[in-house]
Every structure is written in structure tokens, then in C-alpha cells.
Amino acid sequence: xxxxxxxxxxxxxxxxxxxxxxxxxxxxxxxxxxxxxxxxxxxxxxxxxxxxxxxxxxxxxxxxxxxxxxxxxxxxxxxxxxxxxxxxxxxxxxxxxxxxxxxxxxxxxxxxxxxxxxxxxxxxxxxxxxxxxxxxxxxxxxxxxxxxxxxxxxxxxxxxxxxxxxxxxxxxxxxxxxxxxxxxxxxxxxxxxxxxxxxxxxxxxxxxxxxxxxxxxxxxxxxxxxxxxxxxxxxxxxxxxxxxxxxxxxxxxxxxxxxxxxxxxxxxxxxxxxxxxxxxxxxxxxxxxxxxxxxxxxxxxxxxxxxxxxxxxxxxxxxxxxxxxxxxxxxxxxxxxxxxxxxxxxxxxxxxxxxxxxxxxxxxxxxxxxxxxxxxxxxxxxxxxxxxxxxxxxxxxxxxxxxxxxxxxxxxxxxxxxxxxxxxxxxxxxxxxxxxxxxxxxxxxxxxxxxxxxxxxxxxxxxxxxxxxxxxxxxxxxxxxxxxxxxxxxxxxxxxxxxxxxxxxxxxxxxxxxxxxxxxxxxxxxxxxxxxxxxxxxxxxxxxxxxxxxxxxxxxxxxxxxxxxxxxxxxxxxxxxxxxxxxxxxxxxxxxxxxxxxxxxxxxxxxxxxxxxxxxxxxxxxxxxxxxxxxxxxxxxxxxxxxxxxxxxxxxxxxxxxxxxxxxxxxxxxxxxxxxxxxxxxxxxxxxxxxxxxxxxxxxxxxxxxxxxxxxxxxxxxxxxxxxxxxxxxxxxxxxxxxxxxxxxxxxxxxxxxxxxxxxxxxxxxxxxxxxxxxxxxxxxxxxxxxxxxxxxxxxxxxxxxxxxxxxxxxxxxxxxxxxxxxxxxxxxxxxxxxxxxxxxxxxxxxxxxxxxxxxxxxxxxxxxxxxxxxxxxxxxxxxxxxxxxxxxxxxxxxxxxxxxxxxxxxxxxxxxxxxxxxxxxxxxxxxxxxxxxxxxxxxxxxxxxxxxxxxxxxxxxxxxxxxxxxxxxxxxxxxxxxxxxxxxxxxxxxxxxxxxxxxxxxxxxxxxxxxxxxxxxxxxxxxxxxxxxxxxxxxxxxxxxxxxxxxxxxxxxxxxxxxxxxxxxxxxxxxxxxxxxxxxxxxxxxxxxxxxxxxxxxxxxxxxxxxxxxxxxxxxxxxxxxxxxxxxxxxxxxxxxxxxxxxxxxxxxxxxxx
Length: 1155
Prior knowledge:
Blueprint: H1 46-58, H2 68-76, H3 81-87, H4 96-100, E1 113-114, E2 120-121, H5 124-141, H6 148-163, H7 169-173, H8 178-192, H9 199-224, H10 234-237, H11 239-245, H12 263-271, H13 275-288, H14 291-306, H15 321-345, H16 368-385, H17 398-410, H18 415-431, H19 437-451, H20 459-481, H21 494-513, H22 515-520, H23 529-553, H24 559-580, H25 590-609, H26 619-635, H27 642-645, H28 649-677, H29 693-712, H30 717-752, H31 762-785, E3 799-800, E4 806-817, E5 829-835, E6 838-842, E7 853-863, E8 868-875, E9 883-891, E10 903-908, E11 914-921, E12 924-925, H32 928-970, H33 982-1003, H34 1008-1017, H35 1023-1034, H36 1045-1065, E13 1105-1106, H37 1107-1126, H38 1133-1136, H39 1140-1150, E14 1153-1154
Parallel strand pairs: 13-14
Antiparallel strand pairs: 1-2, 3-12, 4-7, 4-11, 5-6, 5-8, 8-9, 10-11
């Protein structure tokens, strides 16, 4: 395919895109002095060049015979080092006799080696061993005279050993170079082969006999040193290498094997001339091409050079006289050497006599450069079509190099033009995409290395060279303008695409350093000029691809999806640029140019979209757009464009994020309501997850929002903190709504305040599980977005309250314990909230209860600066004025309330008792920890209240049961209760309790144990430490087979009630009732009281307790213990006999029973 780029068969003359001659010039300064018959009257044709080349080939000046030194000097004239290497004729002029005569110093290496050029050096010991083995083989084959193969081997080896390969060290030293050994053996074999053999048989037996010699040599090498690399070398094992060395003895010469001695035949092959036509042309040429005419040509060139009148090489053709003088001296020396060598070959040419028939310009065409270029193009085309070298298909063959060298000498072609003509053809092939940059750049660099300094070139050569660079430069920028098409190649690879661009980069850098090019284009020396031009061409390709991407997404009608698709398409292209063109060109990143250009367009488009975008956008779509644009902005971090540097992606998307927060805030409340409405209150995955699906649905929404925030990945901390605060605030509001829905059933039970056994539903347990699961999931979520959640609320953060003139508080009256007895044996308490003597709120009345639980919340607004709030407990009397049961003061100036979080406060009542309240100053703190704590408080407080309702309701039922039984013991006239029938009276309650415990054990999530365990720690540690402990516990696996601690919690509360009741009844007339173990109240920070006192009245005091009463309490206590230990609750005996149980047991034993 590449060969078709050089079309000369159907075209009589090469047509160039540049005007003028083949060298790019418009005219030549030389007019041949020859007859006009040599001037073509028609366009130049291949036949013209063939005839001119044939005249040079019949009697070649660069012949391989004669004086070696002179020949080598002539051959190297005007030729590249690569051409000399390809010729392989450097040693052709050195015969074996030359070496024997001592013209070369003989040396035998001490170690066998393979030189860089493939030459094998043999050591003396190996040569001796080889000779010895040849002697043995000769004796072996001596009797095989009738066998042509063995007989020829025996005869050739015998003569070789006798005449050349003697036992003397001097004789063996001649064969230290293995090539010489092979040539000498080949000569003896050729001499011994019969003359009657055909050419084909001659060559066949030549190789077969030579193979016998090589087999003996390989055996000798193997014995000498088995691991030596010479054994595996190409020269020893490759048949083609052996044939190449034996070429002088081969009779069947292929086209590719024609050497310079037969240049005329090679010219016929190259130009495709038939043998019959070629024979006629040779006959005609021989009439005029003689040794004398050739010598006359050389003499004419020499005289013209001396007289400064050589065609195309006059002083005016050079940029300076110095350049011309250097050329003149070198050319004169070369021509003199050629003439001497020629006379040695043709001694009769000395009797040269000029006459009118002698034409000194017989071999010089009218336009030598055009002839040479067409000859070069023809040779290159032929070699491309018949090339067998896969790695280097553009290498000229040896015969072509010999032909071109001969014609270049005879046509006075400068070495510069020879290199530039080949370079010109390479550029043409590159332009036609038949070779790539990697194949072009070595030739480009090699040409400049060979031709030397540009200021020594002929003017016409310099013009020709610059014209080539013009074409190269034009094509390089054409490649840059269309570089993006490489991404559409099916066979594209990152390495290949990047290599192409880097090679273009090398060529451009090479042009910028080229002095000949800079002499015509001085602007390339100015900083940034080339870079700007390259940038503009790259932008053209990038814009073209961007327009293609825009056209592909233009069919999308909706604004936002179309913009997203466009950004994604561009990002895909930019990532492709980064992958396939990773290295910069002239210091510029293609990826960066593409990124900043695309972003510039998107900035303008997005600014316009800000005002027309429909507010009903989808979150996923906006997130897609944000991520795509942010990625585009990150790719432009190194951009110097002001519009790119000033564009703030986060600021642009902030309004949309704010709008999303507003929409999500209202939607989440709807989602919570809907999730609870469709709730079936069944475990999602028992026993691992005992909560129901509403928690999963709710936190699925939360995590979707969290993922949105994380994917935003805002860098500016203030914006990120604001976003997290608003997000947690939304979660807090949603959780508050969810806890209200979960609390409704418990609130109804709490408000009814029934002194009977209330059957708890399975749904109530699942609701408690939901709160536990929500609390755990919330903590896990907060760890991702609020890593320092345990730190105090920032005291310097901005605080906001509903009013500047008033301070508002949320106050919950939770419970009171150990109240004063205001009636016969109990009180009917309620609490009044007052400020400066003005009643603000009043709780409900709880009859006959010294440990009442109200759990009523109020909003109290007081003038700013108010320091306290009065809390007064009264005993309601149906007749007369209510009695004062106790009073206390809630300090509002407490610094703890400044964090606007809930605080459980334990207030001592006067004269006795304790009042537990929960107080929160209403307001917000602009601190993410505050909102995280608020969200957690909602769940924690709900869980505390749920546990309290369970515990207090069962305690109320126990109190009512025991009250009924003890009344019968106190008033025996109205009953016939004996010790034997106490247990049957307790059975209904115990059955109810066993059923409830079974429900709890079966349904409650064991993660509740984590919070109930932390409750006991609340007596000793601060809330921060408790939260840290809870974090550690949450990370542990929970055993769902262990019993729920709520059962033990209820058991402890019941035992504490019995202790309180017995203590109160055992202290007649006492106005201060305390346990033997101290106050029965819980810590202010606990989830629920471990020693919860009974609600309702204390039993009547008496100096001694009736025996039936003691038996009732004792039976109840033991039955309760047996139920907890043996009823399937899962607790051990030693666990339930600790603490309050032992104190009750001791008190019952110390009280004397009444007779």
C-alpha cells in the first residue's frame, strides 16, 4: 500500500505541489555544454532516467576492484554511514593475498567473542582443534570418490589443509575472523566442483558441501566451550547468513542479490524493462560509453572544479566563499582518487585523446536533480514492493544504494541533495499516511546529522530543504487540527496515541531548533509563538469534538437532563484525553486545554440556566450535574483562565441545595407519617432485627440525603457545616414526629393512670424496638458526619431564641418520690408552676400516691432575666383548702441551660421528698453538635418514657394487688384471709406478670439491654461519658438469646416498692420516710429508676405488722423471685437476690409480727 504513494509507472514525470524544479527551485544556474540532443524536448519519463542510469552503470567508477583504500574513499563520498554499512563491501577489496603479504596486522584473540557487527573471533586452540577434525574427516571420506558430495568435501579439505590451513600459528592466524575462513573454504569448494554442473546444481552442492564444513566447525566450537554464545550465533546456524557470505561463488543470482558489479542489470529490474529491450539499450549505450569517455568525464569534472566552473557548484551557489572552498578541496581530492583507481582498472584509458566525437558531458543529464529524484523514487518504490524486512520496510536494498551512489557521482549530485531527496519522499509518504511519525523522525534526524552545518550548504539545497520543512510543518499542524479523530480509531491504544502526539512534539521542537528553518521563519524564536499556534490548532480539534457532542444531546428537550448529558459527554472526552494523551505537548496538557475550554462554555450556559431552571428538579439529576461540573472544575485546577479560576461550583449549586433542603424537610414528615400508616409492627428480620420496617424506611430517606451531602463534598468548611446543620435539624424534626407516633400508645396508658393490670400489646414492644434501632442507626450516621459529637456545644456559637424580651422554657414535670403524707396514710398530689406568685400551669391530680408520675410538659415564657421558677406540690382535698405537700425552686440562671439542650434536674422538696423535672431553654445554637444532640435527645427521652411507662404501670398493678391484700389483713372483721389463701389471691397478678415477661423476652430487641446497662452508670458518670460508653457497647455484637434487662428492671422496681411499703408501715408517726439503703429515687440522668418507688399511698403505720401482712409481702416477694428465676426469664438466682431483695428480706425478718 505504501508503494502506491510513489506513483511513477503511469506518470511520465513527478508532479510536486511546489512550483519549479524537482528541488523546489524555479531555475538552475547550469546550462550543459553538451549537444542539445541530451536535453529532453518532452516531460521527463522513467525511460529517460533509465537510459541515463544505464550509461553510468556500463562502466562504473565505484567498482569493487582495484585499490581498496581509494575505492573505500570514493564509495564513502557523499554517502551516509548507513549506506556504507548496507553495501557490505568494505572488505571486498582485501584479498587473502593482501593479508598474507602483511598489509594487515594479524592477531588471534585470547578468547572467542562475537563483535557488535556480527564478526566472530576464533581462538588459536579452536582453530587447531578444527584442523585436526578436518584431517580426520578427510581420511574418512578419501575413498568416496564416486560420491560427488563426499568426494568434493575430501578434495577441497585436502587442498585447503595442504595449501592454506597449515599447522603453523601464522597460517592459522589468517582465519581468526570466521568470515575469512568461510570465504576461503567456499573458494576451494567452488574450484573442486565439476564444470559440467548446471548453475542450480552448482549452487546446491556448494551449500551442501559447505554445510559439512560448518558441521565440523560447530562440533569443534562445542568441544571448546559448550556454553559459549558463539554456538547459538546467527553466522554459525543461519543458512541465509551463510548464503550471503558465499555470494561470490553463487551462479544463480536473484534480483536482490545483484551487486554493484552488475548495476546495469539492476537498473533493468528497477525500471521493469524487458530483457530484449534492455539488451538493445545496452548495445546502444556501449557504442558511446567507453572507458575513455568515462575517464574524460572525470577529467572534465576535475578541471571544472579547479576552474570554479563546475555545474551547480560554482562559488555563487554557496552561501560563502569559505563554504565553497571547503567543498572544492574535498571534491578535488575525491575526483583525483577516483581517476587513479579508474586508471588501475583501465590502463589503456591513459592514452586519452580528445576529439570532436568525445562528449565530456555524455553522462550528465540536463536536469540532474530531477533525474536523480525520479531514480530514487523508482528504486524506493521497487524496494517497498519487494521488501522482505518487516521491521524496516523503508530501507533501500544494497543494489539500489549502489546504483544511486554511482549515478549521484556521475551526475554531480551533492550529498545534501541526496539526503534531502530521500527526506522529501519520506515526508510525502507521511503526508499520505503510509508511514507514521515514528518512522519519519529517525530519517529526519539522520539526514541533518549527515549533511553537517546548514551554513555550508548550497543555496539551492537550503531552499529545497526549507520547502520540505514547509510541507512537514503544514502536515504536522494538520495532524494537530484533527488529532481527536485518533479517538475514533478501532485499533487505538493509549500508548499509540500518546506516542504519535509526542513524536509530533519532537518534530516541532526539532523545527524550532533548526537554523535553516529559523532563517526563513524567525518568528519561531519568539517565546510563546509556537505554543500559541499549537494551542489554537488543538482547540480547533477540541471544539469540533465538543460540537459533535452537543449535536448528539441536542435531541433532549428538557434543560437539566440535556445539560447533564452534555457535561458527561465532555467529561468522558476529557478523561479520554487524559488517558490517551497523558504527556504534554510543548509543555501544554491536552486534557487541561479541553477541560478549561469546555468549562468556559458550561459556565456561560449554566449562568443562563440559573434563571430558567424549573424548581421541580429531581435530586438525582441535580446531583449528577453537580458532580459532573465539579469533576470538570477539578480537571481545570491548573488553568490560568480568569473565568475558570473565579467560577465557584459550590456557590452556583448552593441555592439548589437550599431548595432541596426545604422540599426534603416537608417531604420527610410526610414520609414518616406514611411509613407509620402502612406499618404492620412485625420484626423485619427476627431475631437479628426486631424492629419493624418503618425504621428502615425512615433511615433509607436519611441515608439518601446523607449520600447526597457526601457526594457534594464541599470544600469550604462554612458551607459544609451549614449544610450538615440543616440536614441534622431536618433529621431531628423527623425523629420528633416519629417518636410522637411511637409514643401515642404509651401516652394513653400513662394518662389513664389505671391501678389495674394493663395488657401490653406486641406492637408496644415493637415500637420500643423501633426507638432503640433508630437511636443506634442515628449514632452510626452521626459518626460519619459529626466525628466530634462528644465535645461540648460551642460556647461562642450564635444563639437564637424566639423572643429577645422573653425567655421560653420547655418544662416537663416527670415525677415525685417520698412525698409527705398529708392525709391519713397518703396524699393526692399535684404540682403548680408559678413565678413571682402568679400561677402559670398546674398538673393533674394523682390520688393516693406518695410517688406520683405526671409526665406532663409545659411551655413557660418568662421575662428575660428571670432567675427562678417556683414548683409547689399540693395535696388535693375534696373538702377544705388543699394542703402544702412540698415546695422547691428551679434556678433558671443555671449555666447548663445555655446549651438549649434538655436537662434532667432533681429538686429536693421542703419538708421532704424529691421532684424530678426535665427543663430545656427554648432556642437554637448554630453548632452542628447541638443539632446532633437534639436529634439524639428526642429518641433517648422517648425511650426513657417508654421504659418508665412499662415499669410504673406494672408497679401500679402490683401496688393495687398488695393494697387489697394488706387491707384485708388490717381489717380482719371484714375478711377471712389466712396465710394459706394469699397465694391464690396473688395468682392473677403473677399470671399477668408472667405473661408480660414472656412478651418482653420474646419481642424486645436485646439492644435495649445496652441502654438499660448504661443506666446504672449514670449514677457515677456524666452524660458525655455515658454516651461514650454507649458508643463502645453499640459496636459490640448483641446476643439475642440473653434475657431482656427490662424484666430485671421491673423486678427491681417491684422489690423496691415492697421495701418502701414495709419501711413506711414500720415507722409509725414518721414524717420522713427513707429506705434502709437511702433515697429511692433514680439519678437525674438515668433512663429509668432501678429502685422505682411505688405510686399511690403508703400503708397505714402501726407499731407492729399483722402476721398476715408480713406473710403477704413475703409470699409476694418469693413468688416474684421464683417467677423471675424459674419462669423462663433467664436470670440466675444469685442475680435476683442481690441489692434491694436482701434488704427487704432483712426488714421483713426484723419486723415483729402482731399477735
